[in-house]
Amino acid sequence: MAQWNGNNNTMNSGRGWSASRANAAGGEWTGIYGLHEGGKPWVYNISPSPLYTTGVFHMIGDDNWEPQRTNNFELHVYGLSKNIYTPDKGIMIGGNPEQTLTLSLASIGSISQNVSSLPVRYGNTEIKFAGVPTQGDFQATINDYIGKGTERIIAAWHNAVANWGTQKVGMASDYKKSAAIIETAPDGSHYRVWKLFGLFPRDVDYGSYDYNSNGIKQIQVTFSCDAAKPLDEWTSAWEVHKTSWI
Hints:
The chain has 246 residues and is mainly beta. It has helices spanning 97-104, 150-161, 172-175, 237-241, and strands at residues 3-5, 10-12, 17-24, 27-35, 41-45, 73-78, 105-108, 113-122, 125-135, 138-143, 162-163, 168-169, 177-183, 192-205, 218-224, 227-230. The protein starts with a strand and ends in a 5-residue tail after the last helix.
């Protein structure tokens, strides 16, 4: 007959297996260790019982549980005034194109990162190792504001990537920019920042025209970037600008 020892929270069955109980993160788990009839050891663990099973009272009055809204964000691109010229007459983009792009943004897609698997086979089995990491592209929808020259800014930046007049591809040092996606709480506090490196517009769709509609003309941009990382500190946009990859 199995016997429970309350002094050390263990159980011995008398038949080759034993059990132990401990407190893990507020929940109890039971681990059973023993021997198969063939003498080989085995372990069986039961997962911790859930801390909250009937409600959300743990969220009440605690701002740490405030959810991130999808509409509380900004995209800041740095250096758009440097080495960016219009496709027609080669005029340098002046004013504040960084601010215009930020305030013209309607939406952006998700940041995605992927690591390929490197399979190794031997005999009849296969295992996998981490392969090459890849930073995914993302989509952005930008409202076209006539007086702010939003379309002209995008066209000038894309012209630095590939000049359709000269048929030349630009230098990466001219068209690749640093950027930041800044998330905030609904009251504007609690900065959370993704820093983007080597950002440039890969594909641009300048939007369609329709006599049967009076909607806002929007520009669809596919952005490529070399790397992205979430910063450890909630910081201001200016501090993000000064932060290097290292």
